[in-house]
Amino acid sequence: MDMKIATWNINSVRLREPIVLKFLVEHAPDVLCLQETKSPDDKFPHDGLEAAGYVHRAVRGEKGYNGVAILSKHPIEESGHRLFCGKEDCRHISARIKGVTIHNFYVPAGGDVPDREKNEKFGHKLDFVDEMTAWFGAGGDAPDGPSVLVGDLNIAPMEHDVWSHKQLLKVVSHTPVEVDKLNATLASRDWVDVARAFVPAEEKLYSWWSYRAKDWDAADKGRRLDHIWVTPDLRDGLSAYEVLRAARGWEKPSDHAPVMVTLKP
DNA sequence: ATGGCCGCCCTAGGCGGA
Predict the structure, then answer these.
(1) Rounded distance between C-alpha atoms, residue A65 and residue A7, angstroms
(2) What CA–CA distance (Å, rounded) separates A12 from A35?
(3) What is the CA A261 to C1' B18 distance in angstroms?
(4) Which chain A residues in 175-194 sit with Cβ < 7 A of strand B?
(5) If we measure between CA atoms, which residue out of A45, A56, A55 comes closest to residue A20?
(6) Cα atoms in the 13 Å half-sphere on the side-chain side of A2
(7) Is residue A58 a contact partner of residue A70, using CB atoms and an 8 Å limit?
(8) What is the pTM of this model?
(9) Which domains does chain A have, with CATH numbers?
(10) pLDDT 10s digits, A164-219
């Protein structure tokens, strides 16, 4: 049986519960990974999601910021999380579902200035990505076995993952130092970048459009910040990939669109 | 042409987003 996995930076799960439910009804993923839930666990909208059929949930939230969650139609066989950069912030959660370990990440945005001497948020972001690389790499102790890594990684690595490569080279999310570090994470377990297994590298592909643009759709100054990676043992099972761009235009939208992958056994 | 926008919080301006 196929397994459809979606990832979505929801920018407040309580405010956007209606469009989460709309997405679940219309696209029926087996698993939905959320970031920026901005909700303590005791205020998470469990009831609506339960009624929608997502009766298995692993949530890790805090007040006001960050927060990740994995919602599933199928049992969560094991779940866990790891702390990064020695912080208790809620930026990672994992769940094993149907034998596949799913990692859901919310990588720090990194602030405005791409210089760790002047901006400690940028340093935090770089260190966070380094720690991911070490954890998944040869000396790390991340779980073995078929795995999927999803989330808002806040880095658009390739030239056509941004609307203007040249204009964004010094903008946090597309600087060479960030891209190099993300590529090191990608290499740490020979992860497959699912988006680019389906969409040629020369084709523009985005998952995020700023709220500040007057007309996000017409301006189309997007970035591909949301990613789905799979371990090589899952490569042959990849059967579909989609960025649900339409959701960026829904009522009270998130600035990120949901991204989906379908895996065949 | 990035920012003119968002959402959160001990309700109102500051913080974080990217």
Answers:
(1) 18
(2) 9
(3) 24
(4) none
(5) A45
(6) 12
(7) yes
(8) 0.97
(9) 3-263 (3.60.10.10)
(10) 999 999 999 999 999 999 999 999 999 999 999 999 999 999 999 999 998 999 99
